[in-house]
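Listing S7. Sequence submitted for prediction.
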Amino acid sequence: MPPLITLTTDFGLADPFAGIMKGVILRIAPSATIVDLTHEIQPQNIMQAAQVLGAAHPYFPPATIHVVVVDPGVGSARRPIVVKSRAGLFVGPDNGVLTPGIRAGCKIYEINRGRYFLPSPSTTFHGRDMFAPVAAWLARRTPPGRMGRRITDPATLAMPEARLTNGAITGQIIYIDRFGNLMTNISADFLKKTFADWKQLKVKATAKYTLSLVDHYAAVGPGHLGALINSWDRLEIFSRGGCAAKQLRLGIDSPVVVKGST
């Protein structure tokens, strides 16, 4: 199987940055297969990128190389790193964006050997000059240990967790997709463990709106709001044919409360 590389960035598609990264990879590793996870991460939103990586990487073969470039500190003293774990290889800046790949037993290396970068790296485009070529050399089976020294102090994010208080689960919105659906950090597993009759729950999104949990989008009328368990096994608030984010005027970090039906 050809080496597989995924790309996650905040570059968007209007500019050539993502395409240039692919060109760099293919010049070094012509047999690589490149998968675009997304280039539409909100600019400089490290937490959103980590959430996307965490949701997506389990669906890829374990030898996949995952490159994430959401890098507000580009050109600064923050380290470029590669994480080697049983879930794959993870390449990006040491700013917490690779948190989903950092787990017990993994090995982490600071990439500090210039032969694996493009010559004279820019201070503003490490995606092209560092992370893309590193991914390509990994695709050519270069051991990550050759790229730099082992480290044990990577930056990690405190991923927000839902909590149970007075019989209710309080979580928050962690991701908004292009349809305006609001994904929370409340997992289906947490709901099932907390509530015996978990399909009869009420989801409080705002002071005005309390929503019922349904099985699918078409279970509510056009333009109506609802809540369901989405394909990421997370509680999601949606508007059928509409935009829940606009209707509810909610955004990232907005609180969501789930209570049992009374």
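Caption to Listing S7: primary sequence and predicted structure tokens for the chain studied. The CA atoms of residues 26 and 32 lie 7 Å apart. Residues 163-259 form a domain with the Elongation Factor Tu (Ef-tu); domain 3 fold (CATH 2.40.30.90).
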